[in-house]
Structures are given as C-alpha cells and as structure tokens.
Write the structure tokens for this entry.
Amino acid sequence: MDKNLKQLTNRIYYLPHDPGTDRPILSAICGDDETLIVDAGNSDKHAKLFLGELNQIQMANYQSVVLTHWHWDHSFGTNQMNLFTIAHENTKMHLEKMAEYDWSNEALDNRVEKGLENQFCSDMIKKEFGEDRNITITLPNTTFKDKYEIDLGGIRCEVKHVGGDHSDDSSIIFVEEEKVLFLGDCLYPSIYTQQPQYKIDNVRRLLEIIEMFDAEIYVISHEPPLNKEDFIGYIMLLKLICDLTQKHQSNHLNLVDELSSQLNRPLSQLEEEIVYCFINGLTVD
Ligand SMILES: [Zn+2]
C-alpha cells in the first residue's frame, strides 16, 4: 500500500486511503492564503502522518479542516489536527453523541451487540488504536445547514450538504478552479442499519445533486480518485440498478438476469453487493 503524499492537481495533494485500518483519503486544497484540509483522519497517528507529509513539501499553511461526515475514520484525527473545524450541523450532533462513548473492547462489543456500532468499524478501531486507546472527540468550531463557502486565495471551495443512505450529514466539497469534487463516503450504502442498504429515491436524489457539479476528478474516500469517464460509468451503473430494482422489486433472480444481460457479462462481486443493498432498501423500516 502506498502511504506517501500524492499530487492530484496543481493545487491539491492527498494521502491515499489505507484499507489496513480503513483509513480514508485525506486531502489538502492549497490556496494563495491558506490550505484547507478535507477530513481529519481515523486517529492521532493518521492526522500526524498527513500533516507531517504536508510540512515536508512546505505546504504547512493549513488553518482549517472540513469533515465530510461524522464517522470515526474521518473524525478521530480532529483533536490532533487542532485546526478550525467546519462541519454540517448533523455531524456535530453525531459527534456530541459519540463523545459520551467509552472505547474499551467491552464497550465496543456491547455497542455492536446492541446494534449501535458496526462490527467492521469496531474491528478497525481496535486495529488502528491497539491497546492504548486514547480517543478524544473534538466538536466542530462552526457548522452549516445547506452549504459553506471558503475562499483560500485564488481558489474557492463550496461545501454542500447532500445526506444520503450512508450518513444523513454527508457533505461534498467542490473546487471549481481545479474541477475536483470530494464525495467522502456519500455514495456508499448505509452501515448502521441491520443490513447495508440503498434506497432508490435517496440514490436518485443524491446523483441529481452530484451531477450539477462540473468536475473532472472525483475523490471517493476509500478508493483511488476517479476520472470523469470512470465516474460516469459508476453512476450509470447505480442508475441502472435503481431502475431495475424498481421494475423487479425483490425478485433477485430477474433483477440479476436483466442487469447482466444489459451489461452483456456476468456481474462482478461489487455489482452483486450493490444489488443486494438495493433489495435490502426495499423493506420499510
Ligand atoms: Zn463513512
């Protein structure tokens, strides 16, 4: 796994995601006056690693960090970063709730049992932090409802709340000058439901908002950045599965048959999983 800082565009750098402990991409948008960081990382160590890399390339003018959503892997590095923190009002609400949690193995296992914590997140927190679990939840310094704009000097960022199945507070960041759209985890299915799910209406609404931004590079937190062509392929697939789920409802066999005949090949594992999430989303909860 490549753990070094990479340059995405003229003024944007990022530290690639690391599936080992579910670390998301961390990015820096560098204006003439200041640098904005996107996501705080999953631990003190992760935050320190990223800021250290920025210092090495003399990009140390970072003053603020924006959180794409509240999940641990994006927010636990906030305390270590010690920057002006921008987040959606629901992100703050979720972090306030999380600040009361105990992070011992017993407490984590207990929350998993009660359905308050996801098994995968619990495993990854244990792996990232080891036994010495020094976790301090820090609340944002400012919050927004719909959007937040920030001028970094010669480069402007628009932070827009989009919500969606993955997390109700998901926000995306558009950098018009660089034609880059940071999507966080907003396109992923829910993780705090009994089964991971996508709801047809939520996905359609989300894609409609995302398509309004004229980007060339799309940054999804747990995978390498995508160019426009690959991203369009991805959203066309989601739209097609929306349509076919609406048509076939929970008839899994017919849904998979028509999808694979339209794609002209058997489904990949990822496609199978997406179909499964859409069928899960049909149930009323
Ligand atoms: Zn997430």
About this structure: DSSP finds ten helices and 13 strands in the chain. The mean pLDDT is 96.
